[in-house]
Specification:
This protein has a single domain, classed as Glycosyltransferase (Alpha/alpha barrel), CATH 1.50.10. The chain is built from twelve helices and eleven strands. It has a three-stranded antiparallel β-sheet. Strands 3-4 form a two-stranded antiparallel ribbon. The longest helix is centred in the middle third of the chain and has 21 residues.
C-alpha cells in the first residue's frame, strides 16, 4: 500500500480487541483468530489496551470511557504489589505466574497510568489512575533497564500535563539523563545509539528523550533524541521508503549481521510514534511521511508485500516470518496497530475513517 496523497487506509475498528477481552482483561494470545485462554493475560497488554481505548474514545468525541477501560485499569489495580512493583502474567484461572520483578512491565504500567490520569474522560477513572501512578513512583529510581526508563518517561510526561508536581518532573529529568549517559558511553559516529545492539522497542528510547525535552527544554535531550531517531530511521527504511524492522532471530548486534525476521508489530508502532514526536519537535515533514509509511507496513508495504490486518476479523497477524505472516492474532499485535493508527489520527494526519489528511503538513500534539 502506498501512503501518499490521494490514498487511504481502512476505517479503524476495535472488533478483535473486543473479541480478546473478557471480564478479567484482554487475553494475551490467540489461536489464529480465537482468544487462547491457555496463555492467560499480561499487564503489558492491559496497559497498552487501556491507552488504546481511551485514545479512541477521546478522538471519537465520546463523553465517557468505554467499559473495557475500567476492566483494564482494574487489572492494573489487581496487579499492584505495593512498593512500586506489579505482577505481569496471570493465568486464565486468575493465578499469578510471576514474581513482579519484570521492569518493562512496571514501566508500561506507569505509562498507562499516567495516560489515564490525563485522558481518563471521567473523574473517578482519572483519580484511580493517578492514585495508582503515585503509588508506583516510589520504585521508579530502582529501575535499571533503559526501556523501563523510557516507558516510565512516557507515563511521567502524560501525568505532568495535568499536574506539574516537582517530584515527577525531577524524576523525568533524572531518567532522561540516564538515557543520555548510556548514549554517550556507547555511541560512535557509525553507531549513534544507546546500546551495542538493536533489539525490540528501539524507537521508544529516543522518543522518550524527545518528550523529556518538551517537558524540560534541556537541549541535550533534543540533540540526542533527534540524532538517535534519525540514525534509526536510516537503518529501518530502504531507499524506496519501505520499513524493514529488526528481526527477533538474532537482532542486530553492532558490527554483526542484521536479522531480517521475525518482524514484530510493536516495532512498527514505535516507528510511527517516534516519527510523529520527532516531526513535532523538528518541524521537518519527512517525519510525517515516515509515520504514514510505518502504518502502511501493517497493510502490506513491507519486505514480503503481505498485509497483517485481516479484513474478515479485524485482527492483526503476529508479525512477519521469512515465509509469510504468523497467522495467530494476539493482543500485542492488534493493540499496537490501534495505537499507531490513533497516533496518526491525533496528529491530524489521518481520520478514524482512514482518510489521509495532511501528509506533508506539520501536525499538532497527537496527545499520546
Amino acid at each position: 500500500m502506498e501512503s501518499g496523497p490521494g490514498t487511504a487506509f481502512p476505517a479503524l475498528r476495535l472488533d478483535h480487541l473486543q473479541r480478546l477481552t473478557d471480564e478479567t482483561g484482554v487475553m494475551q494470545h490467540a489461536l489464529y483468530s480465537v482468544p487462547d485462554p491457555l496463555h492467560g493475560y499480561s499487564i503489558d497488554d492491559q496497559a497498552r489496551a487501556l491507552i488504546a481505548v481511551l485514545a479512541h474514545a477521546r478522538l471519537a468525541g465520546d463523553a465517557l470511557p468505554p467499559p473495557a477501560a475500567y476492566t483494564y485499569l482494574s487489572y492494573l489495580r489487581y496487579a499492584a504489589m505495593g512498593e512500586g512493583r506489579f505482577h505481569n502474567f496471570l493465568s486464565y484461572s486468575r493465578r499469578w505466574l510471576d514474581d513482579g520483578s519484570g521492569e518493562d512491565a512496571r514501566g508500561r504500567a506507569l505509562w498507562a497510568l499516567g495516560y489515564a490520569a490525563r485522558h481518563g474522560l471521567e473523574q473517578g477513572l482519572r483519580e484511580a489512575a493517578a492514585s495508582l501512578f503515585a503509588d508506583a513512583l516510589v520504585a521508579v529510581r530502582s529501575l535499571g533497564a533503559p526501556r523501563a526508563w523510557a516507558f516510565s518517561i512516557f507515563g511521567l510526561y502524560h501525568y505532568l500535563q495535568q499536574s506539574r508536581e516537582p517530584a515527577p518532573l525531577s524524576l523525568l529529568r533524572e531518567l532522561a539523563g540516564r538515557l543520555v549517559d548510556r548514549y554517550e558511553r556507547t555511541a560512535a559516529p557509525d553507531w549513534p545509539w544507546f546500546e551495542d545492539r538493536l533489539t525490540y522497542c528501539n524507537a521508544k528510547l529516543p522518543a522518550a528523550l524527545l518528550l523529556a525535552y518538551e517537558m524540560t527544554g534541556e537541549a541535550r535531550f533534543r540533540e540526542v533524541g533527534l540524532a538517535a531517531s534519525t540514525w534509526l530511521m536510516g537503518v529501518l527504511f530502504d531507499a524506496s521508503g519501505v520499513l524493514h524492522l529488526i528481526g527477533q532471530d538474532g537482532w542486530y548486534p553492532r558490527g554483526g549481521p542484521r536479522a531480517a525476521f521475525d518482524q514484530q508489530c510493536v516495532d512498527a508502532q514505535g516507528t510511527v510514534e517516534v516519527s510523529l514526536i520527532a516531526g513535532r519537535i523538528s518541524g521537518d515533514p519527512i517525519w510525517q511521511q515516515r509515520a504514514l509509511a510505518a502504518l502502511a507496513w501493517f497493510h502490506g508495504r513491507n519486505a514480503l508485500g503481505l498485509a497483517l490486518i485481516d479484513p474478515a476479523t479485524w485482527g492483526c497477524y503476529d508479525g512477519l516470518r521469512p515465509n509469510g505472516v504468523n497467522r495467530n492474532m494476539g493482543a500485542e499485535s492488534i493493540i499496537c496497530y490501534l495505537l499507531a493508527y490513533l497516533d496518526l489520527v491525533g496528529a491530524g494526519l489521518l481520520t478514524l475513517d482512514g482518510a489521509i489528511l495532511r501528509p506533508a503538513a506539520s501536525g499538532p500534539d497527537h496527545g499520546r
